[in-house]
Design goal:
This protein has 737 residues and is an alpha+beta fold. The protein folds into 6 domains: 142 residues, D-Maltodextrin-Binding Protein, domain 2; 119 residues, 3-Layer(aba) Sandwich (D-Maltodextrin-Binding Protein, domain 2), CATH 3.40.190; 52 residues; 96 residues, Beta-Lactamase (2-Layer Sandwich), CATH 3.30.450; 82 residues, Helix Hairpins; 148 residues, Histidine kinase-like ATPase, C-terminal domain (Heat Shock Protein 90). Helices cover 49% and strands 20% of the residues. The chain contains 22 helices and 26 strands. Strands 1, 2, 3, 4, 5, 13 and 14 form a 7-stranded mixed beta sheet that branches. Strands 9-8-10-7-11 form a 5-stranded mixed beta sheet.
């Protein structure tokens, strides 16, 4: 803000000085600043310069106080020029842009190139795979295995990486499955290498073939497009998916005002038909989404995403959760089946012993054989009667069917379930009551059951009135007096299905509500931040004025309250980003001493106001692996809480301790009142303020919840221990760098 005040002062003084100079000094010619625009040279550099020179002229006309210069550069030249800050703006392919943005801090794209071809506007481009025409030529991607492929270089997105990605999808990897011939120079040389027979195929960016044909340098009949993609409305030959066209971005040293003026001129460029026609483009449009390009580079592990990602048990669970659950299910199922089989074998062994014993008894008591047979027959009849009673009284439906699918019997519960009399059901087949599968599907299922002998599944059966009922089916194949029958139990699960649907609906509603809440917090934080910055700015201006002490105290109070509210807005915005999964952590080796010093400096005034004694013992390892900004935010929060909730004139101790497992613990200990055990479970819940009704200390209950989530995103752990009357210690454990 002080810089803003100084600029305002200088601006005002500058206008006065400029007026005096206009009066006293003769007019002198203006010295316009030179602005260099680096353009990636896909074709020869002279051709690239000639093509894009109208862009410099158009920008010169729109922004006359700057001289715009086009520089056509190869991939390597572009990387060197950006690294050494020899350029101001860059127009290059999305792959190199993502690499330069990560390494050299290029801005987000100001605009995306929109090209013109055959009277159509195209916002995307792809890669072309070409081979020689003729009956012996290559026609498919699989035919490229073991062949020699010409490329200008391996850094080009449209001239190599798009095609390499398509080949990787059919199992062809470089260099083990195909040989590369690096031609260097413009991509024209790739097509020439194919025509000369030095390569079996070649990679080029879409549009290069059409340009050469228009220039008379190529007969398209000599080439064949491999894996040709017939995309509706797309006028260029292409062999790959399409990706957003080139972005134009700025280097970090370019001021925001010039960036906005250049962006505005680019968006209006399509009105300058002479310039766009000369360049062969439609103009520039709002920046495209380059996530598809980033996904390609990540999947192929190409720079800047060539580092092997950490793969944890959590990642294994996240990627293979369904497979793990299925495997565990089958393990449990096999275990249960093994137990059942073991018990069955025990029972079978017992039955065998029983049969042997009965045989011995029969031999000894042959005279009573007829009586025993009669008794056994009576027992079986009783058992059958019991089974009939069970089937008649069970709430689940039951029916039997022959192997052709015709119903042979049904219990009362099943008749009631479908609304048929038993005699009516006996005239039907399974296909007549099945509401989900076709008759052919039912026949196929019956054939499968003949082989498996058992199945369990959910389906729908059709009632007599035409309505359907959700049922869980358990079916087994049995041999009854030499005839094979299906025994089918049908349980009405309509209520369960409705409950499951209600749960799914409730979950969807909750997820939408959570998203709406996050969007609301993000929008409100953004809307509040602008007026708050204005309040802070004008408050700082007032503090510089010579005000009476009472008014100056009021201004200071406004400043403190505004700082507190802005801090709350920032915490709300961070919280909403975390909940939305948009919080990005930049983990890097972070000097512990520097972070501790910065954090202490931020809360120094608060500690002094409360006359607290601060001791620092941090002589451990030099660096940890963390996001330095977020680590400082966590320490500031812990130190601020230790100061606010401490006794007047109390103590605060900040310490470092190296733990086993290459980890470092940063701890903040206070001499405050401590936290009661019954309140500790709510300590890290958002918007929870323990004892807020009895405390005069301001706060929202966001800080600790936000700090813990930030720590977890960094792979760190935030915890505490506290006893009422003995103070509290909060700590964060981080991995050493």
């Amino acid at each position: 803000m002080l810089c803003s005040i100084w600029r305002h002062h200088c601006s005002t003084s500058g206008w006065v000085l400029a007026g005096l100079l206009v009066i006293l000094v003769p007019a002198a010619p203006a010295c316009a600043a030179v602005v260099k625009i680096g353009v990636l040279a896909v074709r020869a550099q002279p051709q690239t310069l000639a093509r894009w020179q109208p862009l410099a002229a158009a920008l010169q006309q729109a922004i006359p106080d700057h001289d715009f210069v086009i520089e056509a550069l190869s991939y390597d030249e572009m990387a060197v020029a950006v690294a050494s800050r020899q350029l101001d703006f860059v127009l290059t392919d999305p792959g190199q842009y993502l690499l330069l943005a990560r390494r050299n801090g290029l801005s987000s794209p100001l605009a995306t190139l929109a090209e013109a071809e055959s009277g159509k506007v195209i916002y995307a481009y792809g890669g072309v795979i070409v081979g020689r025409a003729g009956p012996q030529g290559i026609t498919t991607l699989a035919g490229l295995r073991g062949k020699t492929i010409a490329v200008a270089d391996t850094e080009s997105l449209g001239g190599y990486r798009m095609q390499a990605y398509e080949l990787s999808q059919v199992g062809i990897q470089f260099p083990q499955d195909a040989r590369l011939l690096i031609t260097g120079g413009p991509q024209d040389s790739v097509l020439q290498a194919v025509l000369d027979g030095r390569a079996d195929a070649g990679f080029a960016r879409s549009g290069v073939i059409e340009d050469l044909v228009r220039e008379g340098g190529l007969d398209s009949a000599q080439l064949r497009i491999i894996n040709h993609q017939a995309l509706p409305g797309y006028p260029l030959q292409v062999s790959t998916h399409l990706y957003p066209d080139w972005p134009l971005a700025t280097l970090p040293h370019i001021d925001e005002d010039l960036s906005r003026r250049v962006a505005a001129a680019l968006f209006l460029l399509e009105e300058n038909t002479a310039a766009t026609r000369a360049m062969g483009i439609h103009g520039f449009v709002v920046p495209a989404d380059y996530n598809a390009v980033e996904g390609l580079l990540r999947e192929m592990r190409l720079p800047p995403f060539d580092a092997m990602p950490a793969f944890t048990l959590h990642d294994v669970w996240g990627r293979y959760k369904i497979a793990i659950v299925i495997a565990l299910f089958f393990i449990v199922l096999l275990t249960v089946q093994s137990i059942i089989l073991f018990l069955f074998n025990l029972r079978l062994s017992a039955e065998k012993d029983k049969v042997v014993k009965q045989q011995q008894q029969l031999q000894a008591l042959s005279a009573t054989l007829e009586l025993r047979v009669l008794e056994r027959t009576a027992e079986l009849q009783l058992q059958n009667r019991r089974n009939e009673i069970i089937l008649d009284t069970t709430p689940d439906g039951f029916f039997s069917a022959d192997i052709t699918g015709h119903i042979r019997s049904a219990n009362p519960a099943y008749c009631v379930m479908l609304g048929y009399a038993e005699a009516e059901l006996l005239q039907l087949a399974i296909a007549d009551i099945e509401a989900r599968e076709s008759p052919q599907d039912v026949a196929d299922h019956i054939e499968q059951l003949k082989v498996r002998g058992y199945d369990r599944f959910d389906t729908r059966h059709r009632r007599k009135d035409g309505s359907v009922v959700e049922v869980e089916i358990s079916v087994s194949l049995a041999d009854v007096d030499g005839e094979k029958l299906f025994y089918v139990f049908a349980r009405d699960i309509t209520s369960r299905k409705e409950a499951e649907a209600a749960l799914i609906h409730a979950r969807d509603v909750a997820e939408r509500a959570s998203q709406v809440k996050s969007d609301f917090l993000s929008r409100m934080s953004h809307e509040l931040r602008t007026p708050m910055n204005a309040i802070l700015g004008f408050t700082q201006l007032l503090e510089l004025e010579q005000l009476p002490p009472r008014q100056l105290d009021h201004v200071h109070e406004i400043h403190r309250a505004s700082d507190h509210l802005l801090e709350l807005i920032n915490e709300l915005l961070d919280l909403s980003r975390i909940e939305a999964g948009k919080m990005v952590m930049v983990l890097q080796p972070t000097p512990v001493q520097a972070v501790v010093t910065d954090a202490v400096q931020i809360v120094r005034s608060l500690i002094s106001d409360r006359q607290l004694a601060l001791s620092i013992d941090c002589t451990g390892p030099a660096a940890v692996l963390a996001d330095p900004t977020r680590l400082k935010q966590i320490l500031v929060n812990l130190l601020s809480n230790a100061a606010k909730y401490n006794h007047h004139g109390g103590r605060i101790a900040l310490g470092c301790q190296q733990l086993d497992g290459a980890r470092l613990r940063l701890s903040v200990t206070d001499s405050g009142p401590g936290i009661a055990a019954e309140h500790q479970a709510r300590l890290f819940k958002p918007f929870e303020r323990l004892g807020a009704e009895f405390s005069a200390v301001g706060g929202t209950g966001i800080g600790l919840a936000l700090s813990r989530q930030l720590a977890e995103l960094m792979g760190a752990t935030l915890g505490f221990h506290s006893r009422p009357g003995q103070g509290s210690t909060f700590w964060v454990e981080l991995p050493l760098a």
